[in-house]
Amino acid sequence: MAQSLGAFAKKIERVGDELNGEAARKRLTRVAVETKKDVDEAVRGDLGDTSMSGWRRGKPFDIKGRFDIKSDTEFEVNPVPRGRGPMRVLEQGRNQGGAGGFHGPGVAQRDGKNVLAGETARNKNGKLRKVRTFKAKRWNGRTQGKGTWSDAVGLMQDRVPARIAKQLHKDLSKILGKG
């Protein structure tokens, strides 16, 4: 049976409400909950589980994803705060390029000019100090990065558009699919 124009107008109004406001935020939250699991999948792919053995002795913690809703149309996925350091190590490796040379300031300012190591310079409070450097250990346990966060971003870029389309189709079919 054909719809009356008034019933169709009400459906169109409900579609407008569905595309923004609270309904859009709920839809985006459902997509974000599914998307944060991509971070877990990427970590599992590199480690076999979601925690790094030996990172904190006796108290390992999971490297998982979390999301923040930024607006009605935007969300952001990041590692949980305690997992940011381990995630950086999984992405880039540990101590890349820092071992074996001289480290430290090695340069200070005196009268607007650079002062090299071994010379003296004054601190902000006026005390005289010697500019120093230190030599790093030769071996410091470097590891190769695994690119875990890049893998997670790739999964998200592949899967999020389909998730959004699926949720939108599901929500709109509730309104337009009847009669």
Primary descriptors:
elongated; two-stranded antiparallel sheet; 4 helices; alpha+beta; 179 residues; two-stranded antiparallel ribbon
Any overview of this molecule?
With 179 residues, the chain is of the alpha+beta class. The chain folds into two domains: 5-98 and 144-176, no CATH class; 102-135, no CATH class. Helix content is 44%, strand content 20%. It has four helices and ten strands. The strands form five sheets. A two-stranded antiparallel sheet has the order 1-2. A two-stranded antiparallel sheet has the order 3-10. The model has no long low-confidence stretch (mean pLDDT 78).
Strand order, main sheet: write it out: 1-2
Number of helices: 4
Q: Ends: how far apart?
A: 8 Å
Structural classification: alpha+beta
- Total strands: the figure is 10
General shape: elongated
Give start-end ranges of low-pLDDT stretches: none
Global Rg: 27 Å
What is the N-to-C succession of helices and strands?
HHEEHEEEEEEEEH
Mean of all residue-level pLDDT scores: 78
Give a quick account of the main beta sheet: strands, pairing sense, barrel closure: 2 strands, antiparallel
Q: Count up the domains.
A: 2
Helical residues, percent = 40-55%
Strand content: 15-25%
